[in-house]
Amino acid sequence: MNIVLLGAPGAGKGTQAAKIINDFEITHISTGEIFRKNIKEKTPLGEKAQSYINEGKLVPDSIVIDMMKDRLSQQDCKKGFLLDGFPRTTVQAEALSKAMQIHAVLNLQMDIKTLIYRLSGRRICSGCGNTTHIEFMNGIDDCNCGGRYVQREDDKEETVKNRLKVYEEQTKPLIDYFAKKGILININADRYKDIVYQDIYEALKSLK
Ligand code: AMP
User: From the candidates 57, 152, 156, 191, which is the catalytic residue?
Assistant: First the structure.
C-alpha cells in the first residue's frame, strides 16, 4: 500500500505516520527528516537545502524530485510506503503520479489558529526525537531518554508564518488535485491524536 500524508505543518503528520507504519508495516519517508539529517551531516544536499528550510521556503522541486526518485527506488519501498511531507507542489505531485501508483492520500485537516499554537510551542527531544508542547513541559526541558527538548529552528514564529503561507499557496491545491483522482480521504485532525488515528486506521483497513 502506497500512501501520501497531506496536511499543513503542525497538523500531526509525524505523529500519525509513526502509528501507521507500525500497524501497516510500510516504509516511512519524511522529506523534512531527510533534509534535517543531511544538514546535520553537512552533505552537499544538506547545504543546498539549508537556506530554504531556515527561511520557511520550499526546497526547489528539481532537488526534491531527484532525491525522492532515488529514495523510492530503494528496496524497502517495495513493501509499500508512507510519504510524509511529499509532494508539496503540483509539479512534485505530477512527478510522483507518473512514477508510482498511490492508493490513498490522507488529508489531515486543522484550522490555522491551532496550527500556529502547535508549531510555535512544539519542542523535540534531541535524543529520541519525541515531540511535545511547552504547555505540557512545566518548564522542564529534560526528556526521559536523557536528551533535551529543543525548538526546531524552523518552528520560530517568523518562519512558522512563512511555512503556513507557503502551505496555503503551494500545497493546499494538492487537496483538489488528489480529490479529482478519487483517492483523497479527509481526516479531522483537530482532535486527540489517538482519536484521529482511529479514523485513519479504519480508512486504511477498508482499502486493504
Ligand atoms: P517538514 O519537516 O515536513 O515540515 O519539512 C521541513 C522543511 O523541509 C520544509 O519547510 C521545507 O523547507 C523542506 N521540505 C520538506 N519537504 C519538502 C518538499 N516536498 N518540497 C520542498 N521542500 C520540502
Answer: 152
